[in-house]
TrEMBL record:
GO BP field: carbohydrate metabolic process; citrate metabolic process; tricarboxylic acid cycle
GO molecular function: acyltransferase activity, acyl groups converted into alkyl on transfer
Listed name of the protein: Citrate synthase
Any single Pfam family the record assigns to this protein: Citrate_synt
InterPro entries: Citrate_synth-like_lrg_a-sub, Citrate_synth-like_sm_a-sub, Citrate_synthase, Citrate_synthase_AS, Citrate_synthase_euk, Citrate_synthase_sf
């Protein structure tokens, strides 16, 4: 049976083999685009073979509750970049977060993976060489400038406009220079879509630090934006634009943060929105702008802001260094007020999110004595029991958002309204990778069927 190169986790020996092949055929290692150009025809054949063999097979029943229940768990999408297991958590192309931390190239002197490597992995299923990652850093730095009219657009936003609204506005406006939109209007053939979508995706990712930095500076009065350093990696430049480039621990945090927030399989609101909008052949800027609007919701990415708001409110009500009993009571009062406990629960996960654990490990290494970190730990020992006792949430354990704000606050990035922007910068990596593959594989317009309640009643009348 046909087996895709993309599904294989490259073993160290295979990786060595690939590297030596590159070395023997050319002194310059292939770029990401060159590598994709090789992989895409193979994957097209792989999908063809899979559909020919399994295309008419049933995937289990669709029940009426799926239609009313937010399609929870309904098998409906294909995305090879990452897969989420309810108990184990996310794997990027088959690799867990600790494996990515170990295998992906690092900055000199750094110990967290460079997100450039994660993007390469998401797109190709292969671990890039340090040289390939450096080339990607350089490529993104060269594409980083944003058009003057987008700068002006951001400068004219009132500081009271939420940073996520400003973010999506600016990203949508980048469509002005979309290579794909231009190529489409000039009659590009379907089989070539992925090329300009790749270029747009690279531009999109590259320009996000300048957009995020400008929003941060405008909204929180941080003054003139520094320039990016073309010799530095993506996370370093993002940190610089936020005013934290001299803090090596913060730069390391950004590398880890972007890596773990990049992708969470295809069905979450932001990833799915990007895919859906892209299926109409909207270019990557329009598709990702839409994804950002989904990420801005409090049940999704805005939860990282909500966690800090909730923790601070709790401290103002029960004081700092409160007893476990006082924290427990506060959690109950949140639930009794008809609100959710932000940062807890998940639509798929049924265990503590490994993204939470990766951030906890980082905190234990870099800020074990931080008082807010101690509060997060205290909350971790209390909330799951309360949620279990309340009996509604299917997953009482913390998700990624329960931890991220504490780390950012520790280094002085205390403006919680900005936190989801950083989530958005990271999520671009997954959405962009998915858009490139969707166009390469000719993914069709998405168009599921909706029903009315009356039609459901009629369909099942007199049937048990
Ligand atoms: N606090 C209180 N109630 C909760 C809860 C929480 N943390 N998590 C779930 N529930 C409730 C939920 O509201 C629902 O109540 P109703 O039956 O009254 O509607 C019930 O438990 C069953 O929900 P579920 O099946 O366990 O979860 P869902 O799949 O419907 O929703 C979440 C998943 C993430 C939206 C939900 O757990 C939640 O609201 N959590 C708090 C917000 C949050 O942290 N979101 C971030 C998720 C994160 F991973 C991300 O996307 N970035």
């Amino acid at each position: 049976m046909y087996r895709s190169i993309l599904r294989q986790s490259p073993s160290p020996s295979r990786f060595a083999l690939l590297s030596s092949r590159f070395a023997s055929t050319s002194s310059k290692q292939p770029t990401l685009k060159e590598r994709l150009a090789v992989l895409i025809p193979q994957e097209i054949e792989n999908v063809k073979a899979t559909r020919a063999e399994h295309g008419k097979k049933s995937f289990g029943p669709v029940v009426v509750d799926h239609l009313y229940g937010g399609m929870r768990g309904l098998p409906a999408l294909i995305w090879d970049g990452s897969v989420l297991d309810a108990d184990e958590g996310i794997r990027f192309r088959g690799k867990t977060i600790p494996e990515c931390q170990k295998l992906l190239p690092k900055a000199p002197g750094g110990s967290e993976p460079l997100p450039e490597g994660l993007f390469w992995l998401l797109l190709t299923g292969e671990v890039p060489t340090p040289e390939q990652v450096t080339e990607l850093s350089k490529d993104w730095a060269a594409r980083a400038a944003i058009p003057e009219f987008v700068e002006e657009l951001l400068d004219r936003c009132p500081p009271t406009l939420h940073p996520m609204s400003q973010f999506s506005l600016a990203v949508t406006a980048l469509n002005h220079d979309s290579a794909f939109a231009k190529a489409y209007s000039q009659g590009i053939s379907k089989k070539d879509y992925w090329g300009p979508v790749f270029e747009d995706s690279m531009d999109l990712i590259a320009k996000l630090p300048n957009i995020a930095g400008r929003i941060y500076s405008n909204v929180f009065g941080k003054g003139k934006l520094p320039s990016i350093d073309k010799a530095k990696d993506y996370s370093h430049n993002l940190a610089t634009l936020l005013g934290f480039g001299d803090n090596e621990a913060f730069v390391e945090l950004m590398r880890l943060y972007i890596t773990i927030h990049s992708d969470h399989e295809g069905g979450n609101v932001s990833a799915h929105t990007g895919k859906l909008v892209g299926s109409a052949l909207s270019d990557p800027f329009l598709a990702f702008g839409a994804a950002l609007n989904g990420l801005a919701g409090p049940l999704h990415g805005l939860a990282n802001q909500e966690v800090l708001v909730w923790l601070r409110k709790m401290q103002s009500v029960i004081g700092e260094n409160a007893s476990d009993e006082a924290v427990r009571e506060y959690v109950w009062s949140t639930l009794k007020g008809g609100q959710v406990v932000p940062g807890y629960g998940h639509a798929v996960l049924r265990k503590t999110d490994p993204r939470y654990m990766a951030q906890r490990e980082f905190a234990l290494k870099h800020l074990p004595e931080d008082s807010l970190f101690k509060l997060v730990n205290q909350v971790y020992t209390i909330v799951p029991d309360v949620l279990l006792e309340a009996g509604k949430a299917k997953n009482p354990w913390p998700n990624v958002d329960a931890h991220s704000g504490v780390l950012l606050t520790h280094y002085g990035l205390t403006q919680m309204e900005f936190y989801t922007v950083l989530f958005g910068v990271s999520r671009a990596f997954g959405v962009a990778a998915q858009l490139i593959w969707d166009r390469a594989l000719g993914a069709p317009l998405e168009r599921p069927k909706s029903y009315s309640t009356a039609s459901i009643q009629k369909m099942f009348a007199n049937k048990n």
